[in-house]
Amino acid sequence: MKFNLLILLLFSMYNCFGQLTNDGGVLYIQDGATVYADTNIINKNTAITTNEGNLKTTQHLQNSLSSTLEGNGEYHVQQDWTNTATFTKGTSKVIFNNDSDSNLTSGGDDFHDVEMNKDAGNNLTLLDNTVISNKLDFAADDNKIFIENFNLTMDASSSLIGFDDNEYIITDGTGQLVKNSLLSFIFPIGFDENTYNPIVLTENETADNIGVRCFENVLENGTSGNALTESFIDTSWEITEAVAGGSNLDLECQWADTDELTNFGRNYSGIAFYTESEWETSSYTAAIGGNPYIQSGVGFTQFGVFSVKGDDVLPLDIKVNLSGAYETADAAMRDNIRSAGQIPSIEPFTIAGYQHQGTQGGGEEVIDPTVLSDRGLNSIVDWVLLELRDKNDITTVVHTRAALLQRNGNIVDINGNSLVGFFGVTADDYYIAVRHRNHLAIATQSPITLSNTITISPVDFTLSITPTYGFNAQLTMPDGTTAMISGDANGDGTVNAVDNNSYWRPQNGQPFLYNTSTADFNMDGSVNAIDLNLYWRENNSKVSNF
After folding, report:
1. Torsion on CA atoms 310, 316, 319, 323, rounded to nearest 10
2. Based on C-alpha coordinates, what's the Rg of the chain?
3. pTM of the complete model beyond 0.85
4. I want to staple 443 with a disulfide (CB 3.0 to 4.6 A). Which of 203, 291, 341, 469 is the partner?
5. CB–CB of 253/223 below 8 Å?
6. CB of 22 closer than 8 Å to CB of 46
7. Could you write out the DSSP letters of every residue in 293-311?
8. Model confidence at 453, in pLDDT bands (50, 70, 90)?
9. What is d(CA 267, CA 269) in angstroms, rounded to the nearest whole number?
10. For residue 295, how far is the Cα from the chain centroid?
11. Residue 45 in contact with residue 26, Cβ under 8 Å?
């Protein structure tokens, strides 16, 4: 049916069993009224259609040429929405429904509300850039929106609801899901109909228009090159900002176990960012959750491509006490050296002559000064050295790395929080040894299984029930805890006269210097008679067992 004159619909229902065309006329649908077309609805030439009620079509809605479509009502469209003229959204809602796929051409005009309410398995595809000012609602199961090479923009005050791993936005081209004036927003996106990888962004500084798209893989050059095949999850996100600078984003990335590539260890993973030439990961922690798994990162001021990297990392949950620093009254170690600002930011073992082993990269550990802030029982006491030794020969060191010891006995990575991770190390059984610059080394009684795919029991040397290699390898403290033996000033594995004559005597009473005051056996920040009488004399003649 074709209209080219003024029509006022004041009744509740008008059915058109065929195509409804407004060709240059004026059509007004009042609040509470419904106009229904059994095929297409076409608004063209200089037509003006004002919808304050319900406008429904079983096929396409077209607004073309110099026509106007306006009003605050609902539009029910089963197939395509095509606007190449003027659409004034008001507070209207466009509902895509029924059992067919749909295309959307916005013509550059914004929508107020859009609702996905199709039968399962039917989707919507954008054919140009689209802006939603108020709400996008996934109201039915198994509906998705393909944005392909166009942006879907959620305006500053808009919301996106009803999404999950079966209802989301597919970024299978160059287009992005954009949130204007982002403060905190979840981007429910995936690369295709089988991969859902949402990402949550929180802005800590200047709100900006932030866009995100999801890649199918992690590419060696960020946005180009071959797909990486191990150590990552098999997806990445490109994040852009409208105005360069001023942003400070926290990221929360999500993935399923089916996204994990070979040698990815979620128990020791971190946000990876592609710089000018390589993928970099600043810190590693255990992922949380389960299908989806979640990994977070904070304080990103650069934008580009992000992913989650686990690498072939073997996490080690390990705990020790140093007898020299242990205070029974606190059931913790003193951190006088830290509080005096004496702990170096660079690991101290290389400068002392220690030769690192393996592919770990030991000797390159550097910490941020903030790691040495006061954190109570999590405060850092000192550096320690970890060794993985051959399961068939405890005297053969195969991998080493420096780590940090907290007051509560936990040995943590250089970020001050994470479990220690060994990179580029084959999952296997290893003797695990711990060294300190003026305590005798200790090792596990037998090899321990390390793997990036299973969780092992912690190696807790502070417990008397934990077996150690050799005889009398540790001291038992008054409260029953066990601790490494103090007094080895030169780190040669023996407490003897050399530690007294060549180290304690020249250092006694001198100002404390970390790399030279190794005879500070009780680690209180000074070398004096206490170190000699209560520590060296008590432990004289004790030796490491390996």
Report:
1. -110
2. 33
3. no
4. 469
5. no
6. no
7. EEEEEEEE-S-SEEEEE-T
8. low
9. 6
10. 3
11. no
> Per DSSP, which regions of 99-129 are E strands?
102-105, 111-118, 124-126
**Residues 483, 539: Cα–Cα separation, whole Å:** 13
Instruction: Read off the tokens for 97.
Output: 């429904």
d(CA 208, CA 183): 8
Q: Which residues contact 442 (CB under 8 A, 6 or more apart)?
A: 320, 433, 434, 461, 468, 469, 473, 474, 484, 544
DSSP 434-497: EEETTEEEEEBSS-EEE-SSSPPPPEETTSTTS-BSSSS-SEEPTTS-EEBPB--TT-SSB-SH
Q: What does the pLDDT look like over 311-320, one tens digit per residue?
A: 767 888 999 9
* Lowest model confidence (mean pLDDT) among 95-99, 264-268, 502-506: 264-268
**8 Å CB contact between 318 and 480:** no
Q: How far is CA 380 from CA 40, 409, 421, 441, 512, in A?
A: 71, 10, 18, 19, 18
Per-residue model confidence (pLDDT) at position 10: 39
Per the structure block, which two tokens stand in for 53? 């009620």
What single letter denotes the amino acid at residue 320?
V
